[in-house]
Specification:
The protein folds into two domains: about 30-160, 3-Layer(aba) Sandwich (Rossmann fold); about 170-235, Arc Repressor Mutant, subunit A (Orthogonal Bundle). The radius of gyration is 29 Å and the shape is elongated. The protein has helices spanning about 40-50, 70-75, 90-95, 115-120, 135-145, 155-170, 170-180, 185-195, 200-205, 210-225, 225-235, and strands at about 30-35, 55-60, 80, 105-110, 125-130. It has about 240 residues and is an alpha/beta fold. The relative contact order is 0.08. Helix 1 links the parallel strand 1 and strand 2. Helix 4 crosses helix 6 (about 155-170) and helix 9 (about 200-205) packs across helix 10 (about 210-225). The longest helix has 17 residues, at about 155-170.
Amino acid sequence: MIWRDTQPAVTGQTAVQPAPARPVPPLPAPAIRVCLLSDSALFRSGIRRLLTGDRSFAVSEIKAPPIREALRRNAPHVLVVDAHIPGALELCRDLRLNGVRPWVILAGADGDERWAVEALKAGVRGILTKSASVEHLFKAIRVVHQGEVWATSRVIAQTMAELASRVVTRPAGKMAFDERLSRREQEIVQLVVDGLSNLEVATRLGITEATVKAHLTHIFQKLALRGRSQLAACYHGRLSRDT
């Protein structure tokens, strides 16, 4: 029996090597979710038009407060608030006191440094004036998204100086009230500590006595206090509720 070699003859040609695998391109970074809050359709549509031209942003809108449900639904990283909506600073302070994220940028500010300092103290992380460029808008969103602050160096320095001074000089209880309570609640606390009754507080502020009682209930809950005597003691620093 004759065995035949069934392998192909070598012809002197070199074997073909497989092409090297191409590197897999990195996945694009997730888009920064930006929510626009304004009662002005012009404000919302203008900024939306700018941001949607950049794929690194995903944009949603809220027309007006209340906004918590919309924030839970959209889960934005950054909330761009029209600086001219009624109660803009109060809204920002309320978000911070109630532990609601996203980071907040106030856009369309007038350039008033005193107002900007108060905004940062209220928990705002970015200030954009009316004269801000599109480039500054994009940079501010990215900077704030990273947990940093976008404001002028003068405003940041003044804010830090005032916060440091407050920590050193102000009673712990009073500072806790300023940090945790809304402006209206602070007004009510001041009048109550001054000895006014609920009816007198209501008359002074032009609200109903029932509204005063509701505010006081909310204040006691926020500060974990029981009644007016503890409220007065905490206000004057004789009872600590800062932790």
